[in-house]
Write a structure and sequence with these properties.
CATH architecture of the largest domain: 3-Layer(bba) Sandwich
Oligomer: single chain
Number of helices: 7
Distance between the termini: 30 Å
CATH class of the largest domain: Alpha Beta
CATH topology of the largest domain: FAD/NAD(P)-binding domain
Largest sheet: 8 strands, mixed
Order of helices and strands: EHEEHEHEEEHEEHEEEEHEEEH
CATH superfamily of the largest domain: FAD/NAD(P)-binding domain
Strand order of the largest sheet: 5-6-4-11-12-13-10-14
Number of domains: 2
Strand content: 15-25%
Length: 341
């Protein structure tokens, strides 16, 4: 059944919801005063990295469904719109500092088979000599579920695909018909004001892009740092997590520290030139989980927001669940993802 739906926000959630609605035969307009990817989705890190394959939860399942679907998803988006999301399932290495960490990681090998299936793996292996973080045990976790994409490239590719399928992306528009609010930190602030308590807030992050061509190498995660080789011959490193800050978009000495830590972890980055520095606000609810559901006491309005640091790793499933609600009135949203106000 065709209907007009307006999406507020042209980040990864807004564009993904629009794409899913178009795929189901409805018409869609995206409204964002700043254009596609102006918020957190315009970052630089681009790590699509799964949670550990144990203590399984609904949030981990939502993420897994998106990560497993991502290859075909981005191939279709690129085919329809002609953009390049820079997607690749290149895997990830994580150093294991002590024997206890090795044992924990080995117990998760079986859990990965149980929860992830047999198309990808999580294994403890000797650290590769040519591209590996320093690991005191000489061992690392290698998983093949982790992928990377270019945030800017992915946003551009999805915007192109949406418009190619007849969707509109505009800077302003009336609140007529169904409205889906996917407008990041600003949206969480507005929702908090509406309900009279904090639902979520923007958390500042800083990251950088270095000039190092490791495009086919796995990404590195250790000491709370992502080191992500990209398809264009750069490596992104990040990020900080800042609740208190003076400016949401200015970089500072905290990013200098991130860069130095990344260089200490990976000798290949020691002489790599810094190409760009990025800072922005990322939407965070009470947890990293996204929130999906009707806007309280505002008929015809829905919310799809949050997904702190994992937005690109859950967006496909979030879009499907949101489209179910808006177009069909069908509620498949897992309890941890409900708005719950």
């Amino acid at each position: 059944m065709a209907s007009d739906v307006t999406i507020r926000g042209a980040g990864i959630f807004g564009l993904s919801v629009a794409w899913e609605i178009l795929r189901r035969g409805a018409r869609v307009t995206i409204v964002d005063p700043n254009g596609p990817g102006a918020g957190a989705s315009g970052g630089v890190v681009g790590a699509l990295a799964p949670h550990v394959p144990g203590a399984w939860t609904d949030v981990k399942q939502v993420q897994l469904d998106t990560l497993l679907a991502a290859s075909d998803y981005w191939a279709e988006v690129a085919s329809v719109g002609g953009g390049d999301p820079g997607y690749g399932r290149t895997g990830r290495l994580q150093p294991l500092a002590v024997d206890a960490a090795v044992e924990r990681a080995r117990t998760r090998e079986a859990e990965a088979v149980r929860f992830w299936g047999d198309s990808v793996f999580w294994q403890v292996v000797p650290a590769p000599e040519d591209w590996s973080p320093a690991s005191p045990t000489g061992l690392v976790v290698h998983d093949t579920l982790t992928a990377r994409l270019s945030p800017a490239g992915a946003i551009d590719a999805l915007a192109r695909a949406v418009t190619a399928r007849g969707g509109r992306i505009v800077t302003d528009g009336p609140e007529e018909g169904p409205q889906v609010w996917c407008n990041g930190a600003a949206g969480l602030e507005a929702l908090s004001g509406w309900v009279g308590r904090e639902v979520g807030r923007g958390i500042k992050g800083q990251a950088a892009v270095l000039d190092c061509d490791a495009r086919n190498r796995p990404q590195i995660y250790g000491e709370s740092l992502h080191i992500v080789p990209h398809a264009n011959g750069t490596v992104a490193v990040g990020s900080t997590t800042e609740r208190d800050f003076d400016s949401p978009t200015e970089t500072d000495a905290q990013l200098d520290d991130v860069i130095e830590r990344a260089r200490a972890m990976m000798p290949q980055l020691q002489e790599a030139r810094v190409l760009c520095r990025w800072a922005g606000l990322r939407p965070r609810t009470r947890s990293r989980a996204p929130i999906i559901g009707p806007w309280p006491d505002r008929p015809g309005h829905w919310v799809a927001n949050g997904g702190f640091k994992i937005g690109f790793g859950v967006h496909i499933t979030v879009a499907e669940l949101t489209a179910d609600l808006v177009l069909e009135g069908r509620d498949r949203v897992p309890d941890p993802l409900r708005l719950g106000l």
